[in-house]
Amino acid sequence: MVKRVLKSIFPAAFLKHAFFLYNSTKVKTVDRFVFPEYLVNKNDFLLYRQGFPFQDNCVKTESITNMHVRQYMDEWTNWTQEEYIYTHHGEVTIEPTIGWAIVGWNKLLYYSLGISRTLFLPKPGIFKWFVIKKKVKMVHQLISLRDTGEENYFHFYNDVLAKLYFLQLKGIDINKYSLLISENTWNKGFFQFWYENVGRNKNYNWVIQKHDEYIKCCNTIFCKPLTHHIPTLNKLFKPYFEISIVETEKCEKIYLKRNPKRLRFIENSNEVESVVKKYDYKIIDTDELSPSQQIGLFRGLKKIIGIHGAGLTNLFFSEQCEQLIELFPPPDSGYLPFHYIMAASYKGIQYEAIIGKPSMNKFGGSFIVDPTALEKLIQTKD
After folding, report:
1. DSSP for 27-92?
2. Whole-number pLDDT of residue 7
3. Same domain for 31 and 178?
4. Domain tally for the chain?
5. pTM for the whole thing?
């Protein structure tokens, strides 16, 4: 109720910024003492390594013509990331809101979530955990597919489903375990499309965690593959090319826009859309398409211009795409996200990008793209 009221009063970008300030302060102060870390011995991991995602995926930046973009992307070259499989032998309780595993009275198992040490990720609710009577479900053996960003289209594939295929590649018999997924993720259209159409998912023993339900288990697997782990992506996406897809209007070039009601949209969209129309790009909002329609559309594309966002996840379904131009808002966090240059590299797609300019409305969620720079880049690559 409170969230709905706040959203009706304040811009989404303002609320996001306010929440980050609140949560980062709470994580560094109160949460440090209320929820200390449960320390894991590295010898207890079935697999543990520090990988180099850009190097492991052979991501090249030399062909990027925008030197500002290339400089940002080059900063990822020596970036390391954890990859692991950890089985916790002993009782843990998985709380429903985020998916944190809690050992004993209040210790957080940080390896229960792939990206767990960021300041934007909330810890369990203190009142909910210590005061409210819990609805508890016992499970014998469990694989947790809970993760940060699990309801996001991109992170569903890269961070949730990837766990399942990663474990299979590493020789884990997932049929011996129950598979934990949040109710919100279960109800997403893209999850249900995968569940109904890809592989034999109905044969698995699914545990759907409700919003007020705590899961207890004494033998639980937590894991994390490297982002864009190529063997895992191959195993994950190959079945999608073997199923029939709803026919969509065929086109070779699209511009992916985003609704102004969402964060990260282009303020001068009319100018940008005028440019892309000149070069026969069809304007698409993937929010208006079903999962099947999105897959069918991207199978036939050759060129894509798109705002950084989950819609670009459909690159994984492309069969003949040659070029991606990604449009970024100004990098107020000091970096440009790596998600889609890595996806383009995986698919053999030429990658370019433009960094937008800040809007005068700081908390409006919008940014400005130079239409002249965009047209020049299109002409260069056309």
Report:
1. HHTHHHHHS-B----GGGEEEEEEE-HHHHTT---TT---HHHHHHHHTTTT--EEEEEEEEEEEE
2. 57
3. yes
4. 2
5. 0.93
